[in-house]
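Q&A log
Question type: sequence-to-structure
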Amino acid sequence: MAPVPISPINVGHIDDVQELRKTKPTTIPERFVRGMDERPTLATALSPTPANMPIVDFSKLAKGNTAEIQAEISKLAAACEEWGFFQVINHEIELNLLESIEKLGREFFMLPLEEKQKYPMAPGTVQGYGQAFVFSEDQKLDWCNMFALGIVPDYVRNPSLWPKKPAKFSETVEVYSREVRKLCKNLLKYIALGLSLKEDAFEKLFGLAVQAIRMNYYPPCSRPDLVLGLSPHSDGSALTVLQQAKGSTVGLQILKDKTWVPLQPIPNALVINIGDTIEVLTNGKYKSVEHRAVANKEKDRLSIVTFYAPSYDVELGPMAEFVNENSPCQYRRYNHGEYSKHYVTNKLQGKKTLEFAKIQGNNSN
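Response status: OK
Response body:
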């Protein structure tokens, strides 16, 4: 029998990291303390971003001359293939909108616990306030509070979870999500062109794309060397868009060449990463990349994440363009809704959830 999913909300206030932080514990509760093999090496979190971390200038894609567009598409393709992550500058989303969503996100997390608990993340779900991906009493918890909402299509929304406070929170999320959706559609167009596909290849395949937003709040932690802000995982989406709040500490790390590499935020840039869906569709040419978040001793951190994925009724598998004698089919065909359900009902554990789609005996990853 499968373990019954639980939520920290159900376990009690002791597992809410902001409430814990208020008590200023001298020791970290055992529920958060990671095994030696999982603990972060915090020295790496302070090192600068490698010079070759990809930066894509969206304005050159959208408004450049033919040579600039081609050069930027090539840069984007290399970023997807070699890193699975890149930062986008000049993305055409108004900076005051980015500031507004950050401000309101922070205000939400600063509300009294009783107010936030009006929007609880139910067991086995990923919407509302709490911690997702928690399935047993002995599972280690992340040093993070989350608030998530389904956005598109309408049937993924849960109106009872849209908060009344702070004022304008919900309407700002709506406007922000529309702008990020536009960016995702455009990026997928250029990613398709970089793969020598028709520009609407992904849009046609995805149907009415599913979109969700999640805000992650990481309070300071007296022993950041013992905890993880967010467990290592790849995303089940096609694309993920990450906004790191202005002045954020370095928290995001990506697994590059078996080393955890910190990602230094660029002011006003958005971080984009390839999800499991694109890995499957490209038959592993572009791979989703494991990433995690670490905590900081002195400063808190807020991030706002958008997940963009195919419609739940779409059947997915490697596209014919990426399967040949030299690159045999690595993934089976499956229903994306089934994969999404599988993803949200398993704990974050590296790229383990992608085994759902792997053809047995294929260990190329």
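Response note: The domain at 40-356 is CATH 2.60.120.330 (Jelly Rolls).
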